[in-house]
Task: inverse folding
C-alpha cells in the first residue's frame, strides 16, 4: 500500500528533471536561432538557457511537493485505486502545464534568472525558518512545562532550597513522602565537576595550544594535532565507563593507600575524565586563536630582542586573551551540559558539598533520573526535569552568547 | 666617532653573504660595507632579495623555517653569526621597523616600554616614564600622544603607528635601525614626517632602509645599493648612483625601464 508514496516521489523527481531538460533545450534552441537572425543582438536574451530550465524545475518541484503532502494528508485509510489515480493525475497534469507555461515564456525579455534567484532565496528562508521555529518550539515547551512545575513547587524553594529528594508518594494513601525540590545541591554538584574539569583541561589544553602553534615543527604538528582531536571523537559513553571502571577504582585505591575512603563514584573521577574530554576543545580553539595573531606582531617582538617565551607571554597572549577566554567559556558550557560521564561516574546522591572525593549529582544526571522508568507525566517529579532543563539551557545560552561575542570581537580586531 | 674627512667608520662588513631558503639561493654572495651614522638605501626590483639581506643584519632570518645564511658578517669587527653570540642580544643592538606598522595590542606606553622591560634597562617607574617620553619625543610622536599614553597603540593612525614602532625600537637604544619599506603604507604627509625623522635619527644611528621609491632613496640616503636577482649590482654614494650609474642595469632600473 505504501508503495504508492514511493511511486509518487519518483514521479515527482522524474517530472522535475524532465521539466528542466525540456525547457532548457527549448531555450537553447531559441537563443541560438535568435543569434543567427540578428548578429548584433548577441546577448539580448535576458536569461541564459539554464535559468529557463531551472525555473521550470523549481516550480514543478514546489507545487509537486505540495501535491505530495496534500495527497498524504487527504488519503483515506483504505487507500483506494481511484484516489491514487487522481493523485498521480493531478501531479502529472500540474507538471505538464507548468512546463508548457514556462515554455511559452522563453522570450528575450523574460527574466527567468531573477525569478530563479527569488525562488532560491525563498527556499533558503523557509528552511532556516523551520530550524528557528523548531528551536523556539522546544524553548516554549520547556518554559510552559516549567511553569506548570512552579505551580506546584514555589520558584524560590526550587532555586534556593538545599534539600533535593524528588521521591513523591506513588499512591494517594501513601503518607510521609512529599518530596522536596531544592536545586542548590544539584547546581553545586554541577559547578564542582565543571571546576575540576576546567582545572584539568584549562592548563593542559592551553599548553598544548602554545606548544603546537609556537614550538612544534611542522612534522610534529601534523601528527600531534589530529591525535589530540581523536579525543574529541570518542563517544562520551566510552569516557563514562572509563571513568566508572578505571579512574574511579584507581582513585579509590590510591585514597585507601593514604587511609581515606572514597566512593567509586565521586566528583573527582567524573571531573577528571570530563577534563580529558574537553582538552581538545580548548586546545584546538586556542590554537586557532593563537595562530590568528598576526605574524608581524611576533616579528616585531623578536626584532626587539625578545625571546620566544617572552613573546608568547607578553605579546601573543595579550592579543589572544579574549579568544582564549571565549574558548574557555565554550568549554565550560560543554562541561555543564555533558551528561553521560556524570550519569555513570558522579553518582546520584544530592550532597551539598565542596569535597571532590564525595559523590555528587548534576543537573543532567537528575534529569535522566527523573525521567527514566515509569513516570506519571504531570507529577512534580517529572515536571522538575523541565525546570532543571530550562535553567541549564539559560546558563549555557548565556555562556555561549558571551563566548561567541568575545570571539567575534577578537576576530574583527585584526582584519 | 667618525671624522667626516677621514674614512667613514664601517659598521657592517659583509663578505660573500649567501642566503638559502631550502634549496633556493636568494642571495648569491654579497660583499658590502655599511657605514655608521648615515642612511644606506637598498633599492631594486621586487623579489631581488632586499628584505632577505636586511634580515641578515639582525638575524631575523633565523626565525624563518628553512632559511640559512652563510658568509661573514662583521659588526664592529665582530662576527654576528658566531655560535657564541646570542641573537636575542644582537637584536637589542640592531632594531628593525617593518613595512606594515605592527604595534602590539597594548597601550602606547606599554608598546614603548616593552623592549626596555625585557632587557631590564630601567630600575624604577620614574626612569621608565622618562625613557618612554624620551623615545616618543625622538620619534616625533610625543606631542600627539602625551595625553593618551594609556590608550591602545592599535588605535593610532597608520603614520602615528609607524612612528610609535620607531619609538619602540629607539627605546632599547640600538646602534642600528633597519627599515623595510617603512613608508609604503603611509600617505604623503606621514611619509614626509617619517623622512624628516630619519634625517634626524641618522645623526645618532646607522640606518639601513629598503625602499621602492627612487625619489625617497635620493632624498634621504647617503649611500645607495642596487640589488638585482640576488646580486648586489652597484653600491656607492647616492648622488653618483642616481646621476651617473656605472652599470646599465642600474640605469635602466632608476629610469624606470625595468622592474
Ligand atoms: N620566507 C621565505 N621562504 C622562501 N623563500 C623566500 C622567503 N622570503 C623570501 N623568499 C624568496 O627570496 C627571494 C627574495 O625575497 P625578498 O623578500 O628578499 O625580496 P625583496 O627584494 O624584499 O622584494 P620586495 O621588494 O617585493 O619586498 C624571493 O625570490 C623570494 O621568493
Ligand atoms: Mg621586501
Result:
Amino acid at each position: 500500500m505504501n508503495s504508492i508514496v514511493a511511486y509518487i516521489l519518483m514521479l515527482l523527481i522524474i517530472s522535475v528533471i524532465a521539466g528542466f531538460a525540456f525547457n532548457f533545450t527549448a531555450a537553447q534552441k531559441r537563443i541560438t536561432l535568435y543569434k543567427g537572425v540578428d548578429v548584433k543582438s548577441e546577448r539580448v536574451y535576458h536569461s541564459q538557457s539554464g535559468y529557463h530550465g531551472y525555473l521550470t524545475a523549481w516550480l514543478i518541484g514546489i507545487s509537486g511537493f505540495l501535491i505530495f503532502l496534500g495527497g498524504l494528508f487527504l488519503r483515506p485509510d483504505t487507500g483506494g485505486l481511484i484516489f491514487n489515480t487522481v493523485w498521480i493525475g493531478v501531479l502529472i497534469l500540474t507538471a505538464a502545464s507548468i512546463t508548457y507555461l514556462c515554455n511559452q515564456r522563453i522570450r528575450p525579455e523574460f527574466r527567468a534568472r531573477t525569478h530563479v534567484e527569488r525562488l532560491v532565496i525563498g527556499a533558503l528562508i523557509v528552511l532556516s525558518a523551520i530550524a528557528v521555529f523548531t528551536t523556539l518550539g522546544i524553548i516554549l515547551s520547556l518554559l510552559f512545562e516549567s511553569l506548570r512545575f512552579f505551580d506546584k513547587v514555589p520558584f524560590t524553594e526550587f532555586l534556593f532550597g538545599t534539600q533535593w529528594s524528588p521521591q513523591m508518594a506513588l499512591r494517594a494513601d501513601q503518607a510521609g513522602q512529599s518530596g522536596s525540590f531544592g536545586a542548590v545541591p544539584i547546581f553545586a554538584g554541577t559547578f564542582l565537576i565543571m571546576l575540576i574539569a576546567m582545572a584539568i583541561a584549562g592548563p593542559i589544553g592551553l599548553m598544548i595550544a602554545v606548544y603546537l602553534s609556537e614550538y612544534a615543527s611542522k612534522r610534529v604538528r601534523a601528527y600531534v594535532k589530529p591525535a589530540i582531536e581523536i579525543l574529541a571523537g570518542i563517544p562520551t559513553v566510552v569516557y563514562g565507563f572509563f571513568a566508572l571502571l578505571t579512574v574511579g577504582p584507581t582513585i579509590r585505591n590510591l585514597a585507601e593507600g593514604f587511609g581515606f575512603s572514597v566512593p567509586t563514584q565521586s566528583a573527582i573521577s567524573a571531573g577528571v575524565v570530563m577534563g580529558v574530554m574537553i582538552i581538545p576543545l580548548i586546545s584546538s580553539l586556542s590554537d586557532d586563536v593563537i595562530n590568528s595573531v598576526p605574524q608581524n606582531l611576533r616579528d616585531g617582538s623578536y626584532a626587539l630582542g625578545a625571546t620566544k617565551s617572552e613573546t608568547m607571554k607578553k605579546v601573543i597572549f595579550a592579543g589572544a586573551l579574549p579568544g582564549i577566554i571565549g574558548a574557555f567559556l565554550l568549554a565550560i558550557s560543554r562541561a555543564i551540559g555533558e551528561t553521560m560521564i556524570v550519569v555513570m561516574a558522579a553518582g546520584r546522591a544530592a550532597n551539598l558539598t565542596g569535597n571532590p572525593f564525595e559523590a555528587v549529582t548534576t543537573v543532567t544526571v537528575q534529569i535522566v533520573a527523573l525521567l527514566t522508568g515509569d513516570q506519571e507525566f504531570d507529577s512534580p517529579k517529572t515536571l522538575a526535569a523541565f525546570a532543571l532543563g530550562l535553567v541549564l539551557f539559560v546558563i549555557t545560552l548565556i555562556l555561549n552568547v558571551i563566548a561567541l561575542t568575545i570571539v567575534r570581537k577578537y576576530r574583527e580586531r585584526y582584519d | 666617532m667618525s671624522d667626516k674627512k677621514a674614512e667613514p667608520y664601517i659598521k657592517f662588513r659583509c663578505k660573500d653573504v649567501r642566503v638559502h631558503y631550502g634549496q633556493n639561493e636568494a642571495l648569491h654572495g654579497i660583499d658590502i660595507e655599511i657605514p655608521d651614522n648615515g642612511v644606506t638605501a637598498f633599492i631594486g626590483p621586487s623579489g631581488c632579495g632586499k628584505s632577505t639581506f636586511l634580515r641578515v643584519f639582525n638575524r631575523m632570518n633565523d626565525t624563518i623555517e628553512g632559511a640559512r645564511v652563510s658568509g661573514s658578517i662583521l659588526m664592529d669587527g665582530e662576527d654576528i653569526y658566531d655560535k657564541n653570540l646570542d641573537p636575542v642580544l644582537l637584536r637589542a643592538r640592531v632594531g628593525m621597523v617593518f613595512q606594515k606598522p605592527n604595534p602590539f595590542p597594548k597601550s602606547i606606553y606599554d608598546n614603548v616600554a616593552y623592549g626596555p622591560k625585557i632587557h631590564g634597562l630601567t630600575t624604577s617607574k620614574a626612569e621608565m616614564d622618562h625613557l618612554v617620553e624620551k623615545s616618543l619625543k625622538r620619534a616625533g610622536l610625543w606631542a600627539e600622544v602625551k595625553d593618551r599614553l594609556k590608550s591602545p597603540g592599535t588605535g593610532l593612525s597608520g603614520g602615528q603607528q609607524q612612528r610609535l614602532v620607531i619609538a619602540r625600537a629607539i627605546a632599547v637604544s640600538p646602534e642600528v635601525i633597519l627599515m623595510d619599506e617603512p613608508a609604503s603604507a603611509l600617505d604623503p604627509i606621514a611619509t614626509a614626517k617619517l623622512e624628516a625623522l630619519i634625517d634626524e635619527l641618522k645623526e645618532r644611528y646607522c640606518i639601513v632602509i629598503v625602499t621602492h621609491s627612487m625619489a625617497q632613496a635620493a632624498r634621504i640616503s647617503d649611500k645607495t645599493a642596487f640589488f638585482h636577482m640576488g646580486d648586489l649590482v652597484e653600491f656607492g654614494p647616492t648622488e653618483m648612483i642616481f646621476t651617473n650609474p656605472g652599470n646599465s642595469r642600474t640605469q635602466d632600473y632608476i629610469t624606470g625601464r625595468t622592474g
